Amino acid sequence: MTGRVEVAERRFSLRGDMATVGLLVRRATNEILRVPGAAIPGVLAPTIFFLGLTAVFGGLTQLPGFTADEYQSFIIPISLLQGAGFTGAATGVNLARDIEQGWFDRLLVSPAPRPVLLAGMVASASLRSLIPATFLLVVGFAVGVSWPGIGGLLLAYFFVMGTGALAACWGSVIALKFKTQGAAPLMQAGMFVLILTTTAYAPLELLQGWLADIARINPVTQIVEAIRQGFTTGTITWGETWPGLVAMLALLIVLGGLALRGMNKTAE
Amino acid sequence: MNRLGVNLRVVAALGRRSVRQTFRRPQLFAPILVFPTLLLAIQTGGAGGAIELEGFPQVNGFLDFMLAGAMVQACLLAGNSGGIALAVDLEMGFTDRLFAAPISRFAIVAGRLAGTAALGAVTAVWFIAIGLIFGATIEGGVAGAILVLALVALSAMAFGGIGAAVALYAGRASVVQGLFPLVFVILFLSDAFFPANLMLEPAGTIAEYNPLSLIVDGIRELVVGGLDAGAVAEALAAIALIGGLSIALSAVALRRRLRLGA
Fold first, then answer.
1. Best of A40, A56, A193 to disrupt the B interface by mutation (most B CBs within 10 Å)?
2. Cβ-count burial of A237 within 10 angstroms (0-12 exposed, 13-18 middle, 19+ buried)?
3. Which candidate among A58, A88, A237, B177 keeps its CA 20 to 30 Å from the CA of B84?
4. Domain of B7, in residue numbers
5. What is the ipTM of this complex?
6. Full domain range(s) for residue A149
């Protein structure tokens, strides 16, 4: 009898947790619908960088050893991740705003567990990152990005959502530490550095000096290469994909853990 | 003290305030120094192999080539940050109190622009130092470095005028903040990051006619080539063009604000 009650309670609790996550996601969606302009920087900035970098550094494909024929197909994974990074960082800024205005305190005194609150914010960032990604892909295909195949496209979307979640965790860590929107540049700069210190501009063999060393050990390089394979070769292989999956999982565990720790500390 | 002296004191005081304000607020400071420095480091390591491309100008290294672009990027962002700070002052009512004081209204805007010019000079010193530490050479020597400093400070003032005009016209920081992506459009359509002859079309052609390219080329020539009066004169002409236009727009926006009282 006691066992049945425990199972029922757990089911009820899980349903309640899912409802909380759903409500937090809905709140974030409402923000997009009510303030459509808020989504523009996250869409516009990576698109400008994508078109700008293609126009400026397009000639790099002529270098011996460059692994793509068109620079736009080579650079699109970076722009997709940048869009997700900006969107995730915006979640951190929104959290800092909620902390400043006292709304987050009300969330903390609710019976919702901390991991559920974090999951709500991370899930909303993950979903929101699909907006810049879709816009970028439309622009990208219009200017000649190669079709990555359905598998390549789905893989790109999967990693974009993962990166949105990563950026939201990072933004939350910073927001919970500094408790002010003034820390926004740190949220954006962190993702900026993480994404660009990879094989962003050129293949690993053509990177120079310290950047080559950093890109070799930066786990995001594996994510970039996993997305890039579809756009540059048109095929997806497990050998190119699994390092990206491992890197994403490891980063989510580390940054998610830090964000959760920050939440628990805030409540103390 | 005569009127000019009073106005100069006002400009100096507001300029000092503007510089302090920037260093106290990370959201104003980060775009001016942190982002251009990160981008310089990443682009130098990422696209450094480009100097082997046929048609790339003769340079000691890609960092030498990129320094001018980083400085001009910082100037544009300093202008934008200055505009945001001015708009915040307008929103908070600080500028209204200055308007009520017995000082020239144009000195209020000039103070902001003087602060932006000083920030430009700080970025020039910063990037020259970074360049020298990481192996770049200033071919123009000490005189070249001083000229770089002057060109960067004047450029920052000229771009600051655009930020100030938008701030005075709109009166809202969010509107000036919206210029941020535009800064990168202008940069990508100039030869700030790559030689125009190696850029893809139509960006390459636009870059050749973009006045920003003249400013970049003037600063770059002092770094990679040496003292070149022609390049410096062209850069000064481009700065005068942008500065004249932006200061005229600021004056119009200021008059409109004073007339409408909002």
1. A56
2. exposed
3. A88
4. 3-260
5. 0.80
6. 2-267
